Please model this.
Amino acid sequence: MTHVQHAPASIEIANGALSFGQRDLWQDLNLRVEQGEYFAVLGPNGSGKSTFLKVVLGLTHMNSGQISVLGAPARAGNPGVGYVPQQKSISQNTPMRARDLVGLGIDGHKWGIRLNTRSYRSKVDELLEAVGATEYANVPVGLLSGGEQQRLRIAQALANDPQILLADEALLSLDLHHQYAVSDLIHQYNKRHNATVVFVTHEINPIIDHVDRVLYLANGRFTVGTVEQVMTSEVLSDLYQTHVEVIRSNGRYIVVGGDQNAEHEMRQGLEHALPADPAKGHH
Amino acid sequence: MNSLVLGVTASDLLSRIFVFDRYGELVDLLSQSIWAGAVLGVIGGFVGMFIMMRDHAFAVHGIAEISFAGAALFLLLGFNVVTGSLVGSIVAALLIGLLGVQRAESNSVIGVLMPFGLGLGILFLSLYEGRSANKFSLLTGQIVSISDSQLSTMMIGAVVIIAALVALWRPLTFASVDPDVARAKGVPLGFLSLAFMVILGIAVALSVQVVGSLLVLALLVTPAASALQVTASPLKALIFSVIFAELAIVGGIMLALAGTLPISPYVTTISFIIYIICRITGGYKRRNSASGRHLGAVKVAS
Model:
């Protein structure tokens, strides 16, 4: 890490604090994400994972503290930042083909109508090719499967060659095959372009081989470290403030709450952690 | 004997619906109205695309009812009815835009505003003591009295609407079909939503004059909905949407010219027939073409 210490941080948060009403999401958050790092944000529902992304995107402001993204204060519309949202169903009647969805990532934010259609079209083709979506380029998005739509989302997010890629539960509701395909695409971009990836997820297993560090949020507290450092019974028990068992099996992690309360709180994490592991055998 | 009576009644009815005596003269006489219809068709086709993208059909209906209240109020006070419907529409559009930021929220706001607007409209109309034909035409439309100045108002309105849509085209599309990513990209969703509401208000007010406030949907929603049944390409959808709107409104006016019936049944019927044809075509296309996705499945099954 020492060799990158002088380079400006990709994302840097100093003394960050954020709460909604009575509920603290985090306090005294000091974080430096290096350029090219694959950074996962984990935690149960309501722990502030998605809010963390919104802060980086400049859509939510922290109550106190500073955040800089690529050397400047976080702001919406930073061209150096790409964003992959959670998969949502798209109406069949939406007047949009696969290529149009990707195209929005190129110039959808600009005023007026598109004038230079030739360079636009070749850029769209290139992006579709990169995520393996050429085959269904002209199919209405509403007719595509969740996995196909997420590939397009990635192409859309990569349209402006961002230095930071933010993914919010990008694998949620995808089947296992597509989970790995989509996470591979993100990993490739991370490696080839030395791009920073911030991946918000319930479940670390599909991306575990790629992750450099983890921010684990729970109950208004957090822990930052490598996967090995964070995903232990001691660290997570301390974080949840109740006994939590972390089982490591075949390179995957299963988190099991020690008592009923914890189990209740962590059900979301469990639902995603548990089914993935037996299925891993088929892969 | 019975069948003879029925036959006479039927032909009587037909002669009321389709009258072509001295048709050429009538076309000349009412060419203003036909031009007005053509202008409305362009507006309907353009605005309809975004109404569909934003899922705003209910808002159109709500704005139309309140525009009727505005027109009725101005009629009662002795002012210009067209100005009244424009004022009503824009007030309604802004209220819906400001009170209902989320889509689900805006539907309930419309549901609350619409009956109140309609009630006010009925109140103003029953207080009005002028010619009763004026009352009815606010609801169901009319074609006879399109004046020169009305036509030029419509043309100016159309130019304003289309210029505004062209300027907002890409971000409005982005915000309509993909709001989460658009917000992250810095697209001003709130501004676009309000701006579109104002555009919608103007479009509704202009359309109400010809097709009436009850049936604005046939002009602003049905053509675009039909177009989206047959294509997902944004450009093709726009072109089809304008063509369908033109067929419905200009065709409807041409048929209505000679008869004694209001124009709206003609427009809505043509609009509806186009929609049915598009649904059938679209369903067939989805089952049998490569872009419909089901080609592979159908082949495997057979």
Observations:
- Chain A has one domain: 2-280.
- Chain A touches chain B through 41 residues (CB under 8 Å).
- The first strand of chain A starts at residue 11 and ends at 20.
- The two ends of chain A are 34 Å apart (CA to CA).
